[in-house]
Every structure is written in structure tokens, then in C-alpha cells.
Amino acid sequence: MKDVHIIQNGTVIDHLPAGMGFRCFEILKKQNIGTEATIIFMNMPSSKCEKKDMVKIQDYTLDEETSTYLSMLAPDITINIIKDGKIIKKIKPSIPDEIKGVVSCINSRCITNTEGYAAEFFVTSKKPVILKCKYCEFEFKPE
């Protein structure tokens, strides 16, 4: 039997704040990870912070849009792409200065929610992440 800690091909999302593992998994389910084997580690010891969560997904590669969204929720994440049991690529997604199409404005009266415009935001703070809608100027923390 294979060791559950090791995936042969896929993605490892590391350095999630403790308690964010299931939130990350919910986001990934919306991105159609399908029936791929997924392991969620919670409250693991970490040298960077006291505790962390980690998500491992067999046979799945994270796209850039989802990586950007996850970095807004957890700015210190690291994404490792695994092939043949080895890390072939380490990605430290950065939060861009502007965001398009990744999240929706939470202001129900915003034109992006009433008229069908694509949501666009300025990132006014990166730690914690605060977004400001380009249309209605509403500021909020993505969740």
C-alpha cells in the first residue's frame, strides 16, 4: 500500500494558515478537481508559523487564476507541482496590484452584480488583503 503522505503526480498546496485547509478544498471543488484523491492535513507543526494546513491532490495541476485566488486568502502559500514523486516546480504566487474575474464584488448594488460587468479590483493592501472595486469603490477582505 502506498504511503498516504506521498503523491506521485499532482499538486501540494503548503503553508496554508491553520484552519484554511477545508476552505481551500471547497475552492478547489468549485474548480472541478473531480474525483482525484485529495489529502487535507490540518494543524501540522511549521517552522514559519506555529501551525499550518496542507492540501495534496493527486493528478491535478492548479491553474493560475485559482493560485491567485488562494494567495489572496493565504498570502504565504507555496504550491508544489509533483511529477514522478518529485517536486518539479515550486510556485510562490504573488498578489497582483489589480485583479480581474477571480472574485465578485460583495456590494449587492455594484454594477458588476446588477448589469453584468466583469468585476475588477485594485489591491489596496496585501497583508491583510483588501480589495477595492473599480466600479463602486467598495472595499472588502476576500473570503
Comma- or semicolon-separated keywords:
4-stranded antiparallel beta sheet; Alpha-Beta Plaits; 143 residues; 2 domains; 9 strands; SH3 type barrels; 3 helices; 5-stranded antiparallel beta sheet; alpha+beta
Beta-strand proportion: 35-45%
User: What Rg is obtained from the alpha carbons, in whole angstroms?
Assistant: 16 Å
Strand order of the largest sheet: 2-3-1-4-5
CATH H level, superfamily name of the largest domain: Aspartate carbamoyltransferase regulatory subunit, N-terminal domain
Examine the coordinates and then state which fold CATH places here, giving the name of the CATH topology of the largest domain: Alpha-Beta Plaits
* Oligomer status: single chain
Characterization of this structure:
The radius of gyration is 16 Å and the shape is globular. It has a five-stranded antiparallel β-sheet, with helices on one face. It folds into two domains: 82 residues, Aspartate carbamoyltransferase regulatory subunit, N-terminal domain (Alpha-Beta Plaits), CATH 3.30.70.140; 43 residues, SH3 type barrels, CATH 2.30.30. It has three helices and nine strands, in the order βαββαβββαβββ. It has 143 residues and is α+β, with helices and mostly antiparallel strands.
Question: Can you lay out the helices and strands and say which pair or pack?
Answer:
Layout: E1 10-17, H1 21-30, E2 38-45, E3 51-58, H2 64-73, E4 78-83, E5 86-91, E6 98-100, H3 111-114, E7 120-126, E8 129-133, E9 139-140
Antiparallel strand pairs: 1-3, 1-4, 2-3, 4-5, 6-7, 7-8, 8-9
